[in-house]
Specification:
Layout (H helix, E strand, L loop, with lengths): L2 H10 L3 H9 L14 H4 L5 H9 L15 H8 L2 H9 L14 H7 L3 H8 L2
Length: 124
C-alpha cells in the first residue's frame, strides 16, 4: 500500500496514532489516495483528534471534492459532528462556500436535522 493510501486509510479508520506516525515520517498530509481524495476528505468525521492532527500538519480544510463540490466542512455538517465542524472552522474552513448544488454547510446541517451544528454555523 502506498503511503498516501496508508495515511488516508488511517484517517478513514480514525486511527490518530497511525495518522500522526505517518505524518511524522514524511507522509504528505494533502496527498491524494488512489481514489483522488486527501486524508481530510476521507477521515472519520466523528474523530476530532484525527481532524486536529491532520489540520495541525497543514491539511487543507477547504479542499473540494471533484464530484460533489463539497468540502470537509460540508461533510461534517451533513453528518452532524459539531466538534469536527468547530475544529475545521478553527483551522480556516470557509463556512460560506457552496457545493455543486449551491448548499452551504449550514444548509446541509439544517436539511439533516443537526440543530446544534446549524446553530453554531448560523452564528459565526
Amino acid at each position: 500500500m502506498h503511503d498516501k493510501d496508508k495515511l488516508a486509510t488511517a484517517a478513514a479508520n480514525g486511527n490518530v496514532e497511525l495518522v500522526e506516525s505517518l505524518l511524522l515520517n514524511g507522509a504528505d498530509v494533502n496527498g491524494v489516495n488512489r481514489f483522488g481524495r486527501t486524508p481530510i476528505q476521507v477521515m472519520m468525521m466523528g474523530s476530532t483528534p484525527v481532524a486536529r492532527v491532520l489540520l495541525a500538519h497543514g491539511a487543507d480544510p477547504n479542499v473540494v471534492d471533484a464530484h460533489a463540490g463539497a468540502t470537509p466542512l460540508h461533510d461534517a455538517a451533513r453528518t452532524g459532528f459539531l466538534d469536527t465542524v468547530k475544529i475545521l472552522i478553527q483551522f480556516g474552513a470557509n463556512p460560506d462556500v457552496g457545493d455543486n448544488n449551491n448548499y452551504r454547510p449550514v444548509d446541509l446541517a439544517q436539511q439533516n436535522g443537526h440543530q446544534e451544528v446549524f446553530d453554531f454555523l448560523i452564528n459565526i
